Amino acid sequence: MKPVELSFWHERWERTEIGFHQQDINVHLQQFWNRLGLQSGQQVFVPLCGKSRDLLWLAGEGHPVIGVEISPIAVEAFFQENGLYPRRWQEGAFEIWEQDEVRILLGDYFALEPQHLADAAGVYDRASLIALPPAMRERYARHLDAILPSGIRTLLMTLEYDQTVLTGPPFAVSDVEVRALYEATHEIELLYTRDALSEESRWRDRGLTWLLERVYRLTHRSDQPLTAP
Question: Which domains does the chain have, with CATH numbers?
Answer without folding.
Answer: 3-220 (3.40.50.150)
